[in-house]
Design brief:
Layout: E1 5-9, H1 18-33, E2 37-42, H2 61-73, E3 80-83, E4 90-92, H3 95-104, E5 107-111, H4 120-123, E6 127-132, H5 137-140, H6 148-159, E7 164-167, E8 187-188, E9 209-214, E10 221-223, E11 226-228, H7 231-234, H8 241-244, E12 250-255, H9 266-271, E13 275-277, H10 279-282, H11 286-294, E14 298-301, H12 305-309, H13 317-324, E15 329-332, E16 346-349, H14 352-364, H15 366-380, H16 383-392
Parallel strand pairs: 1-2, 1-5, 2-3, 5-6, 6-7, 7-8, 9-12, 9-14, 12-13, 14-15, 15-16
Antiparallel strand pairs: 3-4, 10-11
């Protein structure tokens, strides 16, 4: 296999949390395991989202330290850079080294469009790849119903900067999928999971179903005079579930970070029987996140309304980690079951009744579904398979 020099962009430092870290770190880890020359360069042009007490809003120290510690933890000590918009400095690798790496790189892999502005050093890399982990949001976030022609041109111009476009919405471009293509080609892909970091372990007695979620991270989008919302909208469909199914607990790590008309009420959820914890304290790092998953019976989660309504075929990065840990996943149907088998280890629900049937099945055959969950991770999310297939598509 040809050894490639690959530059990866992500959000590890900007959003310094356990779940986000696992979403992005498995790209450099997985590509390194395939034998490639990998560098992680975080250049989001955004101010840090995490400051410890006493630090000013434009102080990136905590983000930089977090990224440094993560890279050292995973054996990537000399293979990272954080280009800080606040100070203009480059941390980790010197800027001269970053520019040299980019000038000799074969591939630029921009995960979630983290490196939002493609500077000249990234544009000169021959194969430029965007990984759309947020289908429909990615395509229509710049849409303007009052000026559709110019919105179309803007979106085309932005994504034409890439030679290759991949999407977690596996249904994209298929009949029934409502994600607009804007005359661009998008190929399906999945979250790569480095299976050696996720072990099948015994499920603790009386473990609850869990998930980590944001209630809402942005205002509703408008596309073609329709509103496209987030998990706050879909959660209404299963709000009463703990009252209807009391044989097992439901624990949610809920973040709430947007101005939305769908007001988040921790008290209301707890009154309905949901156990609510703060993700910023309970799953704040990579070990906490793994422990949270391993102390679960399985995952129970809704999807963002936009993923559901668009028939995107999206499947969560987080859910893939649950599967890798041998934890069955019960998650809302987005048409993902057209691509990943449902019924053994993973279940798609559309309403409370189908959710309860899935919970009953998992609880009655837990050992079987735990084993099947791990097998699904091996078959559909193994980083070796996912990333090798992605590279093979870069013809």
């Amino acid at each position: 296999m040809e050894k490639l020099r690959i530059v990866i962009g992500g959000f590890i430092g900007l959003y310094a949390t356990g779940g986000v870290t696992w979403d992005y770190i498995q790209y450099p880890l997985g590509l390194r395991m395939l034998g490639h020359d990998v560098y992680y360069i975080e250049d989001t042009m955004q101010y840090s989202k995490c400051q410890s007490q006493g630090r000013s809003w434009n102080d990136s120290f905590d983000s930089i330290k977090y990224l440094k510690d993560i890279m050292e933890c995973f054996g990537l000590k000399d293979r990272w850079a954080y280009r800080d918009v606040a100070s203009g400095n480059c941390y980790g690798l010197r800027i001269e080294k970053v520019l040299e790496i980019c000038s000799t790189a074969d591939i630029f892999l921009n995960v979630s469009s983290a490196n939002h502005i493609l500077k000249q050093e990234y544009l000169q890399i021959p194969k430029r790849v965007i990984i759309d982990s947020d289908p429909m949001f990615t395509q229509v976030q710049y849409w303007d119903d009052d000026d559709p022609y110019n919105a179309y041109l803007k979106i085309r111009k932005l994504y034409n900067l890439y030679n290759y476009r991949f999407c977690f919405g596996e249904n994209i471009g298929k009949p029934g999928c409502r994600i607009p293509l804007f005359d661009l080609t998008w190929l399906p892909t999945r979250q790569p999971i480095c299976l050696n970091y996720w072990k099948l372990s015994r499920i603790p007695p009386s473990a609850p179903f869990t998930t980590v979620m944001n209630w809402c991270t942005r205002k509703e989008m408008t596309y073609q005079h329709e509103q496209w919302g987030q998990k706050d909208v879909e959660f209404k469909k299963i709000l009463n579930l703990p009252e209807l199914y009391k044989q097992v607990g439901f624990k949610l790590a809920v973040g709430c970070s947007a101005d939305t008309n769908q007001v988040y009420s921790k008290q209301r959820l707890e009154e309905k029987g949901w156990q609510i914890i703060d993700p910023h304290t309970e799953v704040k790092n990579i070990r906490d996140y793994q422990n949270f998953i391993q102390n679960s019976l399985g995952e129970f989660s809704v999807a963002k309304e936009t993923y559901v309504k668009s028939n995107s075929g999206w499947f969560s990065c987080r859910s893939a980690c649950y599967l890798a840990a041998g934890r069955p996943v019960i998650t809302q149907e987005t048409q993902w079951s057209d691509y990943i088998p449902a019924g053994l280890g993973a279940f798609a629900f559309t309403d409370t009744e189908s959710a309860i049937r899935a919970i009953d099945e998992v609880r009655s055959n837990l050992k079987k579904h735990s084993y099947s969950a791990r097998e699904l991770a091996k078959e559909y999310f193994d980083s070796t398979k996912v990333l090798q297939q992605l590279l093979e598509n870069l013809n």
